[in-house]
């Protein structure tokens, strides 16, 4: 079998700014429609822009290629939320780049564990050292906000 080369991102991951709220909202809407993300109002992205890391699409008028929120939950825990890569940008290493930088940001918050929840197959998370976890292991407020009807599974990585 011939290995397939992964196209590496041409632009760096960067922290989101309040002015990125509309782009974060627009990127997320696609994943809300498919049930992969919870619906959140534009004001959520404005208020929490500082939690997000993003990568821009280098194509003219391309918008965002991907984003992930990293929130410090205290007591050595951080959570990843709203992790998404634009459908046309998937398979190019963008998710991996975002995840690497998100883990570095969590380390900067002195986190020793990082939690996430996903409705998908979690291949990217497992590849980056995450393992299945019980919601009871996660920060209580975050775990309580998970919607059981969506079928999210919790994963954790020790840093």
Word description of this protein:
The chain has 159 residues and is an alpha+beta fold. The protein has a single domain, classed as Aminopeptidase (3-Layer(aba) Sandwich). The chain has 5 helices and 7 strands. It has helices at 21-33, 42-47, 94-108, 123-127, 140-144, and strands at residues 14-15, 52-56, 64-74, 77-85, 113-118, 131-133, 153-158. Strands 1-2-3-4-5-7-6 form a 7-stranded mixed sheet. Strand 2 (52-56) and strand 3 (64-74) form a beta hairpin. It is globular. Residues 1-5 have low confidence and may be disordered.
Brief description of this entry?
By secondary structure, the protein is of the alpha+beta class. 28% of the residues lie in helices and 26% in strands.
Could you give the topology of this structure?
Elements: E1 14-15, H1 21-33, H2 42-47, E2 52-56, E3 64-74, E4 77-85, H3 94-108, E5 113-118, H4 123-127, E6 131-133, H5 140-144, E7 153-158
Parallel strand pairs: 4-5
Antiparallel strand pairs: 1-2, 2-3, 3-4, 5-7, 6-7
